[in-house]
Amino acid sequence: MAEGFLLERGFNAFSYQHIARELGMKPAAIHYYYPSKDDLGTAIVARQLRRLRKWRDLPRVADLPPAEQLEALLTVYDSHVRHECRVCLFGALAADFRTLPAPMQAELRTFNSELTAWLAQVLAAGRATGSLRFVGSPSAKALQVLTTLAGALQVARVHDATPYHSIVGQLRLELLA
After folding, report:
1. Looking at residues 22-30, what average pLDDT do you find?
2. Where does the HTH tetR-type domain start and stop, copy by copy (predicted)?
C-alpha cells in the first residue's frame, strides 16, 4: 500500500493517515511496525533493492543472452505504464532526494548504482557478442538508458502511454543490432 502511494504520489505526498484510511485501521497500528515515516520509506526502498537483486539473479533473467536481458528490463518498465502509468522508484524519489532521510537516500543510491552496474554489464556483454550496439562506455550508456526510461514514465504520466512506447521503441532501434 505505502509503496503504491510512493510510486503514485512521491514520498512527501502521503501520510500514515492515507495508508490507515485505505487499510481501515488507525495510524497507530502502522507506527507499531514503522515508528516514523522515515523508517517506512527506508523499508520501501530496501524492499525494492531486494526485489531488484532477486529479479536480476533469477535464472530466467540471468541466463538470457544480453539483448534478451535488456528486453526483460524494458518489460519491467512496461509494467509501470500498464499499472496506471506509475513511475519507477528513481523517478518517484529523485525530485525529492534532498528532503529524504539519510538512510533512505543511501538505499536509493545503492539501488540506482546496482541497477546501473548490472545494465552496464549487460550492455558490455551485448556489444562483445554483437547483439547490442552503441558508442561510448557501457556505464554511460546504462545511465542514459535508465534516465531515458525514467523520463519516459514521467511523460506517460502526463499524457498517456503513447509517448512512452515511442521512446522505448527508439531505444530498441538504437541498441539492438
Report:
1. 85
2. 1-52
